[in-house]
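Let's sit down with a protein and look at its sequence and fold side by side. We need material for that, and I hope you will provide a protein of your own picking. Once you have written the record down, we can walk along the chain together.

***
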Amino acid sequence: MNAKCIMIQGTSSSAGKTVIVAALCRIFAKKGYRVAPFKSQNMSLNSYTTNENREIAMAQVLQAEAAGVEPSHHMNP
């Protein structure tokens, strides 16, 4: 089965993308889908160190928790 992807885009910072993605992660995870958030570029100064000893944005940690998956540097390279 091919993976299906959804991309959420906004026209500015603080447009609500992080919250929408966290909500979608939670909804799809509860429906039994395998979910993983991804952010290709991070402009935030707030970071989290993963179990892999790599830094990712706090937004991806929130989204990973909503999806019920372990935060990984693959979500925010």
Observations:
- Strands lie at 47-49, 55-57.
- The chain has two helices and two strands.
- The chain has a mean pLDDT of 90.
